[in-house]
Give the backbone structure.
Amino acid sequence: MSSNLSIGGLTPFTTLDFPDHLAAVIFCQGCPWHCNYCHNPHFLDFHKKPTLSWQQIDSFLQRRQGLLDAVIFSGGEPTLQKGLLEAILRVRDLGFKVALHTAGIHSNSLAKLLPYIDWVGFDIKAPFARYATITGVQNSGEQPKKSAKLILESGIAYEFRTTVHPQLLDEKTLLELATALADLGVQRYVLQDCRTALCLDTALPSFSYNSVLNNKNLLQAIRTLMPQTIVR
Ligand code: SF4
């Protein structure tokens, strides 16, 4: 069962990662991008030996039936896992809802998964043409653009979210991004302060005041585009 799912870790309980749900998080191993602010650098290497087998996860979930509402697949990048659909179907069979945290790196895979997912937390890095400034990978905005459209067309519950580090995403660029998202039809948008502790790029400067997220005129402009925008 789901032997093709490479699992880097498990958070047995969270109330923060799937709104209004008690959930466990399964971290899939492997991601081809190198976002400066990645907080899970230990989940990027595709060749790293999995820390947990699916059998261990399955046993854990059976013990949590009736105690948890949902299972979140995160990473790493879950949509690149060959065994993900099988794992999702098993999780649903066990009676849990399913949430997905993704950067939309593999849109074809995402299209097959969406019918079985209850909620998506979709990381949007930058305007699609500028993804490489964050991910370090040329043309990396092409797949997320397709994935964003798929999520919106599916009617599934979602949250689009962008991590804001003033050195990586200035006011003008963030407004450009927000305009593009509003044009796509995004309604639920979250701006996240960037925490640099333990992130992939150890040279990324930390700061005590996020000048972009504290720019009231900018936030007002973004909320004019997407009224449900929140900052956290
Ligand atoms: S998409 Fe970026 S932030 Fe997400 S796991 Fe990959 S490198 Fe880390």
About this structure: The chain has one domain: 7-231. The chain is about 30% helix and 20% strand.
